[in-house]
Amino acid sequence: MERAVEAVEQAVKIAKKRGASAAECAISHARGLSVSTRLAEVETVEFNQDGSLGITVYRGQRKGSASTSDLSPEAVKVAVEKADAIARYTSEDPHAGLADADLMAVGYPDPNLFFAASQDPEYAMEQAIRCEQAALSADPRIMNSDGAHYSSHCGFRVYGNSHGFTGHYLSSRQSLSCMPIAKEGDRMERDYAYTLARDPQLLASPESVGAEAASNTVARLGARSIETCSVPVIFHRDLAHGLFGSLATAISGGSLYRKNSFLLDHLGKQVLPAWLSIYEDPLIPGGLASSPFDHEGVRTEARNIVTGGVLDTYLLTSYAARKMNMQTTGHAGGIHNWFVRPDAAHQVASLEALCRQMGRGLLVTELMGQGVNMVTGDYSRGAAGFWVENGEIQFPVTEVTIAGNLKTMLLGIEAIAQDTDPRHGILTGSVLLPTMKVAGS
After folding, report:
1. Is the pTM of this model over 0.70?
2. Residue 317 and residue 234: Cα distance in Å, rounded?
3. Which residues belong to any copy of the Metalloprotease TldD/E C-terminal domain (predicted)?
């Protein structure tokens, strides 16, 4: 990483010497190993090492960018010259420029995002094989497999600009997944399970991942469609983060200044039920969405996103903030560890308790397609899951479409289970919605 820091500082220095009014430079580098198996036999072993330097040069309100994967002083110099040449001919943009100097993450804390992990191919192969063997031996109806996959990656990010700020941090990520195939009669079904963490010690065991994948797959045997109806719907915890991810997209600066959001002009207005809040903390040690500074070097801070259902803030880069006459919120590059917080009266102990509260309806465990209109909030996606009657799962469901409107869906959330999924940057449990249109046979 030392050479990367030098390259970033060199690029900014060259840009300033060439007369640039401002410059910023970033390097993201990743190194890792991925192993795939099928039927407990190794199928692929891949090593990868990726990284490049990106330099942006400003001449007043004109901007030019270039990149290079070669960090030698000569290649860096050439990249800066190309960015500078582009900046001389681009159109002026009154909103272009660095984030304000007083917002830089000077003296940022160590985010503790790196954990040493083995990248030995033999170890990776063993993990994937053990996982798939556990799935294949879990039930006689498991007849085949789409394989298991183990990966271990580590890397770093370096960012610097002409304000004199240079920041960097290490990170790591490990994952293990499995997708078996079950057969009963003429029907076959597949499902999966996975574990993911920065710290390898926090990964679930290969055997437990394989057993969960087998259980999920067998549970889908006998799946059938249902008649079209309007019923309550539960988004399983594996999918519930996507609801709040749509909220994040709708309140991001890019969507707002382009008027591409169903939540235009909703700052200070109700977007969730009054019993529900969202808190963001970017400095959780080992957090999957932790970061001490954003992609513009702006320090990240804990903040309330939604309090009592009311939207407290938009998510702004410096460019979006200038377009909207506001200040950046340190969200260049995305959100940072969202905690979805229901009050005690609307939080239930488990998914099973949430099903009992629903009584009758659809538990959605898989979504297909991208039928979300961010301008209107209209939502329509293929789905699969389980039919619930009298608070109990009755049979698996397939080939249905669920439809609604995101604005109504978010405001109408009735309860959230305590089965929080730790494998995402949005931490939430399963979510109960009062009604959606379910189109079946």
Report:
1. yes
2. 34
3. 229-440
